[in-house]
Amino acid sequence: MKKIALLTVLLALAACNTVAGVGEDVSGGARTVQSWF
User: Fold this and answer.
1) pLDDT tens digits for range 9-34
2) What pTM was computed for the model?
3) Measured between alpha carbons, how far is 23 from 37 in angstroms, rounded to an integer?
4) What are the protein's UniProt keywords (predicted)?
């Protein structure tokens, strides 16, 4: 049972980290495009 809980927590953290990384990439791209104008 503890293994399942640990796996769930690790997967949730990995997913949050991925979503945050995508958000940073999109923000960086938006800043680059904004600097062109």
Assistant:
1) 877 777 766 767 777 787 887 888 78
2) 0.46
3) 22
4) Signal
Return the SS3 of 7: helix
More confident position, 4 or 19? 4
- Alpha carbon distance 30, 11 (integer Å): 29
Find where tokens 């949730």 sit: 12
Collapsed DSSP state (helix, strand, coil) of residue 1: coil
Tokens of 31: 């800043």
What is d(CA 27, CA 32) in angstroms, rounded to the nearest whole number?
9
HSE at residue 33, side-chain half, CA atoms within 13 A, is 6
